């Protein structure tokens, strides 16, 4: 959560804020100090509904959130959720749908580590380790379907977004991608 706190604090986030895959505890990204200026905090979880601190949790699947209006949130967060989501692309589409133009989308997910640096040059010399790729461990909580490459993060998660930043934040490899929804739809 410290990485999200740092990246969120570097931007001014106010208004309505949504977290998809939120939990009713201090571990929710909605509890970050950087979101103290939010006027409303909403969490989406498969279970619920709940109230926790100043957060209203609704029971919903991120794949379909018809109870949330189009362009109704100033920021949308999702962390450590999409790799558990069999239809993650639907959830990404829904997050973009409910995000206001000019709003920020923050997504954290496990990625494959690109092979680089001294450590990988050493491993390439070992025949059985030549094709090793480092990633966050599989954990079945509740299911664990995916690990993402940086191309997927750039071209699928952040498709149609502007000012995209991808931050490699942890070992084992995880990233946080941040994008801004364009103020106007592109013309053909």
Account of the protein in words:
The chain is of the alpha/beta class and 188 residues long. The protein has a single domain (2-180), classed as 3-Layer(aba) Sandwich (Rossmann fold). Helices cover 18% and strands 30% of the residues. The chain is built from four helices and eight strands. The chain has helices spanning 2-9, 88-98, 117-123, 150-157, and strands at residues 15-20, 38-45, 50-52, 55-59, 73-79, 99-110, 162-170, 174-180. It has an eight-stranded mixed β-sheet with strand order 3-4-2-1-5-6-8-7. The protein is globular, with a radius of gyration of 17 Å. The termini are far apart.
Biggest sheet architecture: 8 strands, mixed
Shape descriptor:
globular
Radius of gyration: 17 Å
Number of strands: 8
**Uncertain residue ranges:** none
* Mean residue pLDDT: 88
CATH architectural arrangement: 3-Layer(aba) Sandwich
Question: What is the end-to-end distance?
Answer: 39 Å
CATH names the topology as Rossmann fold
Count of discrete alpha- or pi-helical segments spanning 4 or more residues = 4
CATH class: Alpha Beta
Strand neighbour order, sheet with most strands: 3-4-2-1-5-6-8-7
CATH superfamily: Vaccinia Virus protein VP39
Strand content: 25-35%
- Overall structural class, as computed from helix and strand content, comes to alpha/beta
Order of helices and strands: HEEEEEHEHHEE
Total discrete domains: 1
Helicity, in percent?
10-25%
Keywords: Methyltransferase, Transferase
GO molecular function, one term: S-adenosylmethionine-dependent methyltransferase activity
GO biological process, one term: methylation
Protein name: Putative Type 11 methyltransferase
